[in-house]
Amino acid sequence: MNAPGKTTYINWAESIDLKTGRPVENPGIRYEEAAVELWPGASGGHNWQAMSYSPRTGLVYIPIQQMGTRISRDPTEQSDTAFNVMGLVIQPVVRRPGDGKGSLVAWDPVNQKQVWKIQHDHFWNGGTLATASDIIFQGTADGWFNAYRATSGERLWRFDAGLGIIAAPMSYSVEGRQYVAVLVGWGGTVAALSEVADVGWKYGAQPRRLLVFALDGDKELPPSAPRDMKVHALDDPSLVLNEADVAAGRSFHIVCASCHGAGFRAAGAPGPDLRESAIALNAESFAQYVRAGAPDRGMPPFEWLSEDQMRQLHAYVRARAREALGTREPYDPTKAAAQATPAKAASQPGTGDVKAGL
Ligand code: HEC
User: Fold this and answer.
1) Which residues line ligand 1 (CB under 6 A)?
2) What pLDDT is stored for residue 1 in this prediction?
């Protein structure tokens, strides 16, 4: 066994104790004692999408993501990018260049060091495949399917797949002809991290596909909607918002955020952006839809929500739509904390009995 190197920024442990196999923790990194900033954050450094190994190069090809998480028990830290998981406020942290983005790292496991690295533009990229012809395939959040030289990382080819790719590719051969297949589809935990993982895919606008490539392939993909970073928010200007409801909805919206996005900023999947929803414009149609859900389409029924909770969630969606339209000031937790306790009190209701989550 050799001492592990670091593939991404880590602040919670200095090393692994090779006798016990336990990490040697840095002091002051437990949120039970005080608010902490952890690196890697809640999404980990490389523990989601599949990595691959090439016995030919001896290297491991790792999809890395770099982002921190602030974890606090202070409810006044609740912001529009944070989750309140039963009283624990969890917030993405992006500080340095490369934070909030992913990369592809070729890692030498014997010498525990990086051999080459491709910096990606976005956070949530695909798994990797290493082939016997020394090619590494990986899809990216922005929908490119790439082939790199396994020894150097030089990009040899890429294909615009029209939607984000998170799956790992695979290769197989039939009657001597080699194929490379990849599932093109966007989702996973992107909604929870929508602040960094929103790259402009819109729910249902781009088709999910299984794409299969061969050297002499000649098919073309039919065109589909491009990425769109604009929020096409709807608003009913006559609606008067109750600020206590907005605050309660903010602290409580984790019940919806794993699909509709932190702060109701969606990331294209698994659910649509509620700021753009006509159903969410009106309190009654919102409550009716949310109670019944659309289970055959992935929207669970929420018949257990109280009328107050429903009204609070609706108020928060409406506030966020106005913020997207620029007709309302975004919420600033530092200002709110500086103001007195009413804001604190307003952020409490609803947090005690959250059922759904990640
Ligand atoms: C497990 C994922 C998931 C969760 C959790 C979830 N939703 Fe949804 N929601 C969806 C999906 C998927 C759709 C789209 C259904 C369709 O295609 O018609 C949707 C649609 C909606 C719509 C209709 C949007 C439109 O205009 O078509 C509303 C409103 C809505 N959800 C509100 C909520 C609220 C409020 C919560 C929290 C109480 C919530 N959802 C939680 C997945 C989810």
Assistant:
1) 255-256, 258-260, 270-272, 274, 277-280, 286, 289-290, 294, 297-300, 302, 313, 356
2) 64
Task: In whole angstroms, give the CA distance from residue 230 to residue 20.
Answer: 51
- CB of 28 closer than 8 Å to CB of 38: no
> What structural domains does the chain harbor?
13-213 (2.40.128.630), 243-353 (1.10.760.10)
Residues in the chain, overall count: 358
Which residues are within 8 A (CB) of 209 and not within 5 positions of it... i.e. 6 or more apart? Answer: 161, 162, 163, 183, 184, 185, 221
Query: What are the percentages of helix, strand and coil residues in the chain, rounded to 5?
Result: 25, 25, 50
> What torsion, rounded to 10 degrees, do the Cα atoms 41, 42, 44, 48 define?
-160
Q: Is the pTM of this model over 0.85?
A: yes
> Given pLDDT bands bounded at 50, 70 and 90, which one contains residue 333?
confident
Minimal CA–CA distance to 242: which of 151, 316, 292? 316
pLDDT for position 358: 31
For atom 24 of ligand 1, the residue with the nearest CA is 277
